[in-house]
Amino acid sequence: MKGLSFQKGVMFFGKHYISICICHSDLQRVYVLDNTKINLGKITWILLRSLPAGYQAGLFLLILLLAVRAAGGISLGAWETAGLPFYTVLLIFFGSHFMFPGEWRKFHGAEHKVFSYKGLKTVQNVNEIKKASITNRYCSTNIVVLYFAGFIIFTGLLWIPAGLSSAAAVSAWLNSILAFAGGVWLRGNSRKPLRRWVLRISYWTQKHIACAEPSEKHLTAAVQAYQLLQKKERGYYGNY
């Protein structure tokens, strides 16, 4: 099972179904979708609609710039002249993980606590779930931490022979691949010194930047979505 938080709720993904809990003021809507490509598109639309207006405007501008660039309307040189190297898109993409709006961070924290709690994950146990760890070993924050760590390291190594601009460009693109490979590597034995070091940074980032302490509303939403997926995937309520 995998989880995904967003500005207005939490989703959980199983082999066959996707459960969603969306919060509107004091109302919560919980439902389930088949895990299909079409519904993944619907989920993307839900995520985009949930973003605050400022985030939507910034995302729209970024997509517009990329579309114009892809159509040949903006040359790579023009990006450079404007002080916006094309690889900046990658830095913004990975860096957006550190810019979650407040509610998103709380739903993210609730998602993690549901995974961390070892008891029966029910609404009745929300107060106990709230005490669970807010960090998660398999969070996508791992990939973001690996990306920026690699970006700094490779840029530093290539700076003298290639120059800062070229070093940063190569590092930005190269680490967009290496970070995902590193995410797979990080699932191995956590007692290994290097993995333990990376996980410590990721846990700190999750606790202080990517997540925030959830309220009862956020935890209830996460638990309801979790339990609904359990019901659909396994036919009964319980821990996954």
Structure, described:
The structure is a single chain. With 240 residues, the chain is of the alpha+beta class. It is built from 10 helices and 4 strands; from the N terminus they run E-E-E-E-H-H-H-H-H-H-H-H-H-H. The radius of gyration is 20 Å and the shape is globular. The chain has a 4-stranded antiparallel sheet with strand order 1-2-3-4, sandwiched between helices.
Outline of this structure?
The chain crosses the membrane at residues 57-78, 84-100, 139-160, 166-186. Keywords: Membrane, Transmembrane, Transmembrane helix. The protein is α+β, with helices and mostly antiparallel strands.
Radius of gyration: 20 Å
Biggest sheet record = 4 strands, antiparallel
Helical segment tally?
Answer: 10
Structural class based on helices, strands and sheet pairing: alpha+beta
* DSSP strand tally: 4
**Unreliable parts:** none
> What's the mean pLDDT score?
87
Percentage of β-strand residues? 5-15%
- Terminal Cα span: 7 Å
Helix-strand sequence = EEEEHHHHHHHHHH
Q: Share of helix among residues?
A: 55-70%
Which overall shape is indicated by the principal axes computed on the Cα atoms?
A: globular
Write out the strand line-up for the largest beta sheet, numbering strands in chain order. Answer: 1-2-3-4
InterPro entries: DUF1385 (IPR010787)
Pfam family, one: DUF1385
Keywords: Membrane, Transmembrane, Transmembrane helix
